[in-house]
DNA sequence: TCTCTCACTTC
DNA sequence: TGAAGTGAGAG
């Protein structure tokens, strides 16, 4: 059965809502808005143009008006708004004039992202959750200053492969594991006006990545399996659950809505930044990535060579001993076989997993790179201008001379990626991927639940020039860096026809109608509200409310607790799972999201615990896999980016309207814009991958590498020598390295 | 591969 | 000052 705004009450199910009524009294209107139609309310449908057309007695509270307008826009029967509309103070309503917006999004710290992306970005996921680094930050423009927007972010699988880091590169290691429950993170400041969003950098740094499927930092809402659009799980949380060794693509969404409850029937503008793609890992695989993180993440400052911490001391100790050894070794063996010595030493350390390995690499890195003594900014800027150049230089001296330190062959620049010894000792260097560098412009997909308006299609067309824009942006960072590929889709017309692979839009969506025939744009099972309950206070801001416990919120509620609550409410898990969307909203509220009668989340304590959500976890999660819309495994069309040089089957049936596909448009050829954009963009960029160098770790000085662990005892004997050597090394190391590199 | 603890950092 | 975010390293 389908649910529509015009006919919100599902025959035969309305009674099921009654249990909520007594508890939901304060939010009665909300339930009405959500679709509940009290039997005692006369049906009165608002004109399509909104409440402005109504002649309401006196003044109508703004919230109510907003809701009415929203309801009217979507065809909600006035009667469904419930009695609350009559109970609230009324005031004259002013028609809200909707200014057309033309959102543009610029990825902040793009250069940094590029640096990571070139090497194959890795994001550590832990049980307790780790933040992303670099943090996902964007700057928005083109928004209607007065309109309210909800900004969201989610992370989707970039493909259906599992990876392994082998021979210094990421390789496909099979089919992806079953997808984790999807979550969407709503920016804690949501909803906020366009003006507010545009006045600052929108950062999603609080989002955490985890591999803990039982993570409680979120809750799941189960939507009825027969629901028009939202079947399956939509969870909200500050943590996104990912599979280790799988590739992911963050997405950013702008939704013009003043209430989260309107998301289902609001227009989603989705932005993809290929350079933010990453592989989730439980432990870093590529040393270069590790080093980049250490160099750029303030919290990892303790691991920088410049530090004076214990680690640093330990590192230096090790380094010193290594240097001493190297020096002696040179004396003993002459200078000819350094390469082999280094190699052996390196292997030895690597195998022994001695801390010296990373240490050495780091230290040397500094020696050869700007990092030491140089501000991060400086180092960054250098890399920014030419990490390659920097690396290249190193390579000429170090890499070439240390051919194989780690498998590394005397990598030619062109092959540096593969040869780059940036990887962990265990398996090597950096992921060799045809790195699409940052050139790809972000892809923007705008899907509207409403009929696609002219304005909605506007951007796509506009984007036609995107490619050049992208280049421009690249060239002129800070200028109009955002030239996202904009592919706008009329959900109804396009989403269903051709799922956006990788975008999480189920093919089946199109055929289904949601609230008056408007399909939902969120990927089913992909709706997580930022801000676990515990995090809500801090994270969700106005969007989420604290629950009865005040500070306790719902964070403390686990599925079990919720299930109990549900049971108490007379709702079985099953029934809960089959609740219609609007009912689910109750559940949402019950989970700690205090929702205003008009759909917004109340900032006041709300104790009602209705429940059902509990069931959601189990029921919903299972539904994720079995429901056609949610069965990502079976239908999972995915975006494939070339960065990792993986096969890129491109779905050519994208239903998206392609108005402007930047660089990829050309490459896309027959592909529809979106697909082309997604698939092609990365590819189009794979350019200077060859230039990638093994900078830091590879920059190990040969001397340091040649030291063998077992020789450490000699350290003492050589201490004095060490010190003098070290002094010299700091200033001369570069030269020796070069000479050495060149000598062989 | 993953998990946990540790010492270090930022805020 | 303490909570929380880091990568290293051991298991």
Description:
This protein is of the alpha+beta class. The strands form three sheets. Strands 2, 5, 6, 7, 8, 11, 12, 14, 15, 16, 17 and 18 form a twelve-stranded mixed sheet that branches. A three-stranded antiparallel sheet has the order 1-4-9. A three-stranded mixed sheet has the order 3-10-13, with no helix packed on it. Helix 7 crosses helix 9, helix 10 crosses helix 11 and helix 11 packs across helix 28. The radius of gyration is 28 Å and the shape is elongated. The termini are far apart. The N terminus and C terminus are likely disordered. The chain binds a DNA duplex (11 and 11 nucleotides) through strand 3, helix 6 and helix 7. It is found in: Nucleus. Pfam families: T-box, TBX2-3_RD, TBX2-3_TAD. Keywords: DNA-binding, Nucleus, Transcription, Transcription regulation.
Summarize it:
By secondary structure, this protein is of the alpha+beta class. The protein is built from 28 helices and 18 strands. GO terms for molecular function: DNA-binding transcription factor activity, RNA polymerase II-specific; RNA polymerase II cis-regulatory region sequence-specific DNA binding.
| Rg measurement, Å | 28 Å
In round numbers, the mean pLDDT is: 49
Distance between the termini: 76 Å
Instruction: Please identify the structural class as seen in this structure.
Output: alpha+beta
Low-confidence stretches: 1-93, 332-441, 448-744
Helix content: 25-40%
Total strands: 18
Q: Count the helices. How many?
A: 28
CATH architectural group of the domain at 104-221 and 234-299: Sandwich
Largest sheet at a glance?
12 strands, mixed
Q: What does the overall shape look like?
A: elongated
Question: What is the CATH homologous superfamily assignment of the domain at 104-221 and 234-299?
Answer: Transcription factor, T-box
């Amino acid at each position: 059965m389908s649910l529509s705004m015009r006919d919100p009450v599902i025959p035969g199910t309305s009674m099921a809502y009654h249990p909520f009524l007594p508890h939901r009294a304060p939010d009665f209107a909300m339930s009405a808005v959500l679709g509940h139609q009290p039997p005692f309310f006369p049906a009165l449908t608002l004109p399509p143009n909104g409440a402005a057309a109504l002649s309401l007695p006196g003044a109508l509270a703004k919230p109510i008006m907003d809701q009415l307008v929203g309801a009217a826009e979507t065809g909600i029967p006035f009667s469904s708004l419930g009695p609350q509309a009559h109970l609230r103070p009324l005031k004259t309503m002013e028609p809200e004039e909707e200014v057309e917006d033309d959102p543009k999004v610029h990825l902040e710290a793009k250069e940094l992202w590029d640096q990571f992306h070139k090497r194959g970005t890795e994001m550590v996921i832990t049980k307790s959750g780790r933040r992303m680094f670099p943090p996902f930050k964007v700057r928005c423009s083109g928004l209607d200053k007065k309109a309210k927007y909800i900004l969201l972010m989610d992370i989707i699988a970039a493909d259906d492969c599992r990876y392994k880091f082998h021979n210094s590169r990421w390789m496909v290691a099979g089919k992806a594991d079953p997808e984790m429950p999807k979550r969407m993170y709503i920016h804690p400041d949501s909803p906020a006006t366009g003006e507010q969003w545009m006045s600052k950098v929108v950062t999603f740094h609080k989002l955490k990545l985890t591999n803990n499927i039982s993570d409680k930092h979120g809750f799941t809402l189960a939507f009825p399996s027969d629901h028009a659009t939202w079947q399956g799980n939509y969870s909200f949380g500050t943590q996104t659950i990912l599979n280790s060794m799988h590739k992911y693509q963050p997405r950013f969404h702008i939704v013009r809505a003043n209430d989260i409850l309107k998301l289902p029937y609001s227009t989603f503008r989705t932005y993809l930044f290929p350079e933010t793609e990453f592989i989730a890992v439980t432990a870093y695989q590529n040393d270069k990535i590790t080093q980049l993180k250490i160099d750029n993440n303030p919290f990892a400052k303790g691991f920088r060579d410049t530090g004076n911490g214990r680690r640093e001391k330990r590192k230096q100790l090790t380094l010193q001993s290594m240097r001493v050894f190297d020096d002696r070794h040179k004396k003993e063996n002459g200078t000819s076989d350094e390469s082999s010595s280094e190699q052996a030493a390196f292997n030895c350390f690597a195998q022994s997993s001695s801390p010296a390995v990373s240490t050495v690499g780091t230290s040397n890195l500094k020696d050869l790179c700007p990092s030491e003594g140089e501000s991060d900014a400086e180092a960054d800027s250098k890399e920014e201008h030419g990490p390659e150049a920097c690396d290249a230089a190193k390579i000429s001296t170090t890499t070439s001379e240390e051919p194989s330190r780690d498998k590394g062959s005397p990598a030619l620049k062109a092959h540096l990626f593969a040869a780059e010894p940036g990887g962990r000792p265990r398996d090597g260097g950096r992921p060799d991927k045809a790195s699409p560098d940052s050139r790809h412009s972000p892809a923007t997909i705008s899907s509207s639940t409403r009929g696609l308006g002219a304005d909605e299609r506007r951007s796509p067309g506009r984007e036609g020039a995107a490619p050049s824009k992208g280049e421009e942006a690249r060239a002129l960072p800070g200028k109009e860096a955002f030239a996202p590929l904009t592919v706008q889709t009329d959900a109804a017309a396009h989403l269903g026809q051709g799922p956006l692979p990788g975008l999480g839009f189920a093919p089946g969506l199109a055929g289904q109608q949601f609230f008056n025939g408007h399909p939902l744009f969120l990927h089913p099972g992909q709706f997580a509200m930022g801000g676990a309950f515990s995090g809500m206070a801090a994270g969700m801001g106005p969007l989420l409310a604290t629950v009865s416990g005040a500070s306790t919120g719902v964070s403390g509620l686990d599925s079990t607790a919720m299930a109990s609550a549900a049971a108490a409410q007379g709702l079985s898990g099953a029934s809960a799972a089959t609740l219609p969307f609007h009912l689910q909203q109750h559940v949402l509220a019950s989970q700690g999201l205090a929702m205003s009668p008009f759909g917004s989340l109340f900032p006041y304590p709300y104790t009602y615990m209705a429940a059902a959500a509990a069931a959601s976890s189990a029921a919903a999660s299972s539904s994720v896999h079995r429901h056609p819309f949610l069965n990502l495994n079976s239908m999972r069309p995915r975006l494939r980016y070339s960065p990792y040089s993986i096969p890129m089957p491109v779905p050519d049936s994208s239903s998206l309207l392609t108005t402007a596909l930047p660089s990829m448009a050309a490459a896309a050829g027959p592909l529809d814009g979106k697909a082309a954009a997604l698939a092609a963009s990365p590819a189009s960029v794979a350019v200077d991958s060859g230039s990638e160098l093994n900078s830091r770790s590879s920059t190990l000085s040969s001397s340091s590498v040649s030291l063998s662990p077992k020789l450490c005892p000699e350290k003492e004997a050589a201490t004095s020598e060490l010190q003098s050597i070290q002094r010299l090394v700091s200033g001369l190391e570069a030269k020796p390295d070069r000479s050495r590199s060149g000598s062989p």
